[in-house]
């Protein structure tokens, strides 16, 4: 890690998240395979962004920054706000108006960020904050800040430490493409240091309405219910392609329906509540399950906590929700189907 004694470490004790066996997903694959999920929704602000933000904010503080800025579909803004305030700095966050999950907005506000909702999408917000950081005294903490990726690579270290080697496949949701880049950096660094014998195939999954790495073209108006990855022109495009090529991996698109199926499967069969964008990793694995070699070890990255987006959870599971039942034993028993 690029830190020295002079670096003031701003931390909330992020990382060390569990690698949880996922037998119900393995069963869906239908052959002898091991499937695990790296549940990064258990980080302090509920997403993997904390791994990168502890680094970016510590380095910003070391450099004497008074304020940081980011564009975000929600999770980066929550993490930037929490770590900036903990480090005694101000945070400015630009979000696409109306397309950020409720929990993430609540976090950014309560952590004390200045929240600027723009009439535009993430890609436009990122363009603006990049220019802002060049012209004004604010440090950019999006994943184009190299310290973000240095922090996020630690998730790959933890997976190798837990399994004793790298997995055969790493399935990961892709939006701005920073995280897939960071994981690949982490696996390569561990491989060079002799801590793992193999390198995983990097399998990146994008939402079908926001899949520029699959089509090879930027998407002007990205659309998906997985708002975290509603991104049409990823900043780390080339680095993500390099990781895919070097690892003999692939990019695939998953539909919103496939994302919702995986989201429900994870919650109702594994007991793991992630946000919709995170479920894209599992949706993708199930889409290409016939390509998984027998005996393989697969890790799916669950990037964010399901509590971030209560609206989607409630809206898409309404049939189980029986309301207006009389406060009487008989009525409750009847509603239960007895
Ligand atoms: N999953 C979640 C829950 C995310 O919040 C993000 C990105 C991704 C996956 C994709 O990661 O961008 O590194 O490819 N969220 C960013 C944000 C864009 O602003 O919170 P990526």
From TrEMBL:
CDD domains in alphabetical order: Thr-synth_1 (cd01563)
Residues reported to bind pyridoxal 5'-phosphate: 75, 175-179, 303
InterPro entries tied to this protein: Ser/Thr_Dehydratase (IPR050147), Ser/Thr_deHydtase_PyrdxlP-BS (IPR000634), Thr_synthase-like (IPR004450), Thr_Synthase_bac/arc (IPR026260), TrpB-like_PALP (IPR001926), TrpB-like_PALP_sf (IPR036052)
Domain called Tryptophan synthase beta chain-like PALP: residue spans: 10-304
Needed co-factor(s): pyridoxal 5'-phosphate
GO biological process entries: isoleucine biosynthetic process; L-serine catabolic process; L-threonine catabolic process; threonine biosynthetic process
Enzyme class name: lyase
The keyword Amino-acid biosynthesis belongs to this UniProt entry's keyword annotation: yes
Modified residues (N6-(pyridoxal phosphate)lysine): 49
Highest taxon listed in the record's lineage: Bacteria
Keywords on record: Amino-acid biosynthesis, Lyase, Pyridoxal phosphate, Threonine biosynthesis
EC number assigned by the record: 4.2.3.1
Pathway this chain belongs to: Amino-acid biosynthesis; L-threonine biosynthesis; L-threonine from L-aspartate: step 5/5
Keyword check for Lyase: yes
GO molecular function: L-serine ammonia-lyase activity; pyridoxal phosphate binding; threonine deaminase activity; threonine synthase activity
Catalytically driven reaction(s): O-phospho-L-homoserine + H2O = L-threonine + phosphate
Entry-linked PANTHER family: L-THREONINE DEHYDRATASE CATABOLIC TDCB (PTHR48078:SF6), THREONINE DEHYDRATASE, MITOCHONDRIAL-RELATED (PTHR48078)
Family: Belongs to the threonine synthase family.
Function: Catalyzes the gamma-elimination of phosphate from L-phosphohomoserine and the beta-addition of water to produce L-threonine.
Protein's UniProt name: Threonine synthase
Native source species: Nostoc flagelliforme CCNUN1
Lineage: Bacteria, Bacillati, Cyanobacteriota, Cyanophyceae, Nostocales
């Amino acid at each position: 890690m690029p830190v020295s004694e002079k670096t003031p470490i701003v931390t909330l004790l992020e990382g060390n998240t569990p690698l949880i066996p996922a037998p119900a997903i393995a069963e869906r694959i239908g052959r002898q395979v091991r499937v695990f999920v790296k549940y990064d929704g258990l980080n302090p602000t509920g997403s993997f962004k904390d791994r990168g933000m502890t680094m970016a904010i510590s380095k910003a503080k070391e450099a004497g920054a008074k304020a940081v800025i980011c564009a975000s579909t929600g999770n980066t803004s929550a993490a930037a706000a929490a770590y900036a305030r903990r480090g005694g700095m101000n945070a400015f966050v630009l979000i696409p108006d109306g397309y950020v999950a409720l929990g993430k907005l609540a976090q950014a506000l309560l952590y004390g960020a200045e929240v600027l909702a723009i009439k535009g999408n993430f890609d436009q917000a990122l363009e603006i904050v990049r220019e802002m950081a060049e012209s004004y005294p604010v440090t950019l903490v999006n994943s184009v800040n190299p310290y973000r990726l240095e922090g996020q690579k630690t998730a790959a270290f933890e997976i190798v430490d837990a399994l004793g080697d790298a997995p055969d496949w790493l399935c990961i949701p892709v939006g701005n493409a920073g995280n897939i880049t960071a994981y690949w950096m982490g696996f390569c660094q561990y491989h060079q240091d002799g801590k793992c014998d193999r390198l995983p195939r990097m399998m990146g999954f994008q939402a079908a309405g926001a899949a520029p790495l699959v089509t090879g073209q930027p998407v002007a108006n990205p659309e998906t219910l997985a708002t975290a990855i509603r991104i049409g022109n990823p900043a780390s495009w080339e680095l993500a392609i390099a990781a895919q090529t070097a690892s003999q991996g692939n990019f695939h698109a998953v539909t919103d329906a496939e994302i919702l199926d995986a989201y429900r499967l994870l919650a109702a069969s594994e007991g793991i509540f992630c946000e919709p964008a995170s479920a894209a990793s599992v949706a993708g694995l199930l889409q290409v399950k016939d390509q998984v070699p027998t005996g393989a070890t697969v890790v799916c990255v669950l990037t964010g906590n399901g509590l971030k987006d209560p609206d989607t959870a409630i809206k898409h599971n309404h049939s189980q929700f029986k309301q207006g039942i009389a406060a009487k034993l008989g009525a409750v028993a009847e509603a239960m189907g007895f």
